[in-house]
Amino acid sequence: MKMQNFKYEGSGLNRFFGPLEAKIMEILWNSIEEMTIKDVQQKLDNDSKANNFNTVMTVMNRLVDKGILQKKALARSYQYSPVVTREAFMEAQSKELTLDLIEEFGSLAVTHMVDALDKVDPGLLDQLEQKIKEMKKDR
Amino acid sequence: MKMQNFKYEGSGLNRFFGPLEAKIMEILWNSIEEMTIKDVQQKLDNDSKANNFNTVMTVMNRLVDKGILQKKALARSYQYSPVVTREAFMEAQSKELTLDLIEEFGSLAVTHMVDALDKVDPGLLDQLEQKIKEMKKDR
DNA sequence: TCCTTACACTACAAATTGTAGTAGGAGTCG
DNA sequence: CGACTCCTACTACAATTTGTAGTGTAAGGA
């Protein structure tokens, strides 16, 4: 389940998926149960205008092909569910991206981190400082 | 000059551009002088197999359309050059991505930063610690 | 048996990126 | 002046990604 891109535009799942893909993942991740295509399609209908069943199916099966969803055969249909939890997904993306960012920009990224942290949530600065201390202590 | 994606695959300019685009930007940024299409094409030829002149032209003009290159009319041709220096480009990407990363992942990213920094270059940890101190002092 | 339902297969559209042909205009050389 | 060369503009096609949806098919139920 290898993502390709991190998009500058959008937010949340839209950074990793197309708009419809994102809505579908959102629905699947919000559901406790596994869902059929029809389930997902109806959820989508609630939110906005009707989506063609086949459209939803195609996109969902593409997500299966990419290893993001898995499907389990029922009598007359399939039940779909994410391969990993949303938390695990976000965790993996965060890890990958953070590493890539530092590999790519190194010292430059460090400079920007402090500003960005301060801008988004100054509390994160303390958290980071704490983490660094712990890391150094363990050596 | 708004980038769309940060690619997980590849490294350097390939994270932002297609393969040929990246080679072309590499050449333009390595050149002190502005360059014509032919200049760039010949540089490309040195590196690998021949590239069609028109191919290089099309890609370069697309980069102009995107606001990444600019072209200046000469008597019989144009001279192309990047709109911003490589350093400014990297600076802007680093800033944008770092901010997006933190907006998107917040505390999660903070956790990964320390590990990533330690893995890539432990010296960056000290640098970061220093930066945090400075930031806090200024308040 | 016939119908409904869910899936499979297929196709098309727009955007992105790489590729390259053709045509035209402008300067050059004989 | 006329033929030639060179550079650009225009155009087009292919592959990939994502959204969209039609048609066919098979299985199960009435």
TrEMBL record, chains A, B:
Keywords: DNA-binding, Transcription, Transcription regulation
InterPro entries, sorted: BlaI_family, WH-like_DNA-bd_sf, WH_DNA-bd_sf
Stored Pfam families: Penicillinase_R
Family: Belongs to the BlaI transcriptional regulatory family.
Protein name: BlaI/MecI/CopY family transcriptional regulator
Organism: Paenibacillus chondroitinus
Lineage: Bacteria, Bacillati, Bacillota, Bacilli, Bacillales
